[in-house]
Amino acid sequence: ARPYALVCALAAGAIAGHLFLLGETSHPRRHARLLVAGLLLVLLGGLFTQPHYAFFAPACAIGSLVLSPDRRGVIIATLPLAAIGLYVALWWQTLTATFLLPTTSWMTRAGLTDLTTGFLALWGWRNGWVLAGAILALLLVRRDAWREVSTRGWYFCLTVVILTIAGMFIASSSKPVYSAASSPIVILPALALTIAAALDRLGSPRVTAVLALLVLSSAAAYAVEGIRSPDPAPSGASIAAVAREIQCGDRVVAAGVAFAPVTWYA
Fold it and tell me: How far apart are CA 249 and CA 264, in angstroms?
C-alpha cells in the first residue's frame, strides 16, 4: 500500500501537537512532557513514511517561531529539527544508497502550473475551483470578518502549507521531487484546516454543508469509477512477472513508484 493515507494522518498529528504545545488549544500542563514525546515520535514516524515529510517538518519548526517567537516557540521548534537529526543518523546508509537510484528520473522541474494542479488534485478539479471561488467570494462580501479568521493557529497552518510547498519547489530546481499528483498530500491537513476555518468564520452552516456535499459527491463518484475500472499500472502484476524469472542470489531493484519498472540482474 502506498503510504499517503498514513503520512496524511501523521501530518495531521503533527499539526495538532504543535497547536497544543503552542497554546492554541487548552490542555493540562501535566501532559506537556507526554505531548512533547508524542510529537517527536509522530514527526519521526512521518519522516520514515514519506520523503516529502522532510519538507513538512522544517516548515513546522519555522511556523512555531512565527507563531510564538519566544522561549516556548524556540523549544518547540527544536522538536522537528531533532526528529530530522535522528532520522538522518538512523537512516543515513539507506539515504545515501537511495540518492544514487534514479527514483525521480520520471519527474520534471516544477512550475506554476504544477502548483495549481497540485491544489486541484486534493479535492478534484471541479471542487478545487469551487472551494477557491467560495472563499474569495466570502472574503469580498465579509471583509470586516477577516480578523475572525486570521488567528494565530490559522497563520501557523498557512505558514506550514506555504513553506512546505516552497521547499519542494526550491529542491526541485536541482533534483525534481515535486509531483502534483502526490506531493501536496503532506499539506492536506494544514490546508484543510485553513479552508475550514475560513468557511466556518466567513460563511454559514448552510454554505459549509453545501460545499461538503459537493466534495463528498465527487469523492464517491471517483471511488465508484475506480472500482469499475482496472488498475492502469498494477504493481502486483509487474512484480509477479519479475518474480517468476528471478532465482536465489539475484538482486531486485524497485524504484518505489507504483508505475516504475522493476529490473533484476544476477
Answer: 11
Confidence of residue 260 (pLDDT cuts 50, 70, 90): low
Q: For residue range 51-76, what is the model confidence (pLDDT) as tens digits?
A: 889 999 999 999 999 888 888 889 89
- In the numeric block, the cell 501537537 is attached to 17
Q: Which three cell numbers stand for residue 56?
A: 513538512
| CA gap 266, 250 in Å, rounded | 5
**C-alpha angle 257-258-259 in degrees, rounded to nearest 5:** 95
Distance CA 149, CA 127 (A): 22
Residues in the chain: 266
Provide the angle, in degrees to the nearest 10, between the axes of the packed helices 32-49 and 53-67: 150
Residue 57 · residue 46 · CB < 8 Å: yes
Q: Is the pLDDT of residue 27 over 70?
A: no
Rg of the chain over Cα atoms, rounded to whole angstroms, equals 21
The residue behind cell 509487474 is 238
Q: Whole-model pTM?
A: 0.80
* Angle CA 258–263–266, to nearest 5: 150
Q: Per DSSP, what are the bridge partners of residue 254?
A: 262
38 φ/ψ sector (left φ>0, alpha ψ -120 to 50, else beta): alpha
Residue 247, burial from CB neighbour count under 10 angstroms (0-12, 13-18, 19+): exposed
C-alpha 207 chain-centroid distance: 26
Q: Count CB atoms within 10 A of the CB of residue 7.
A: 24
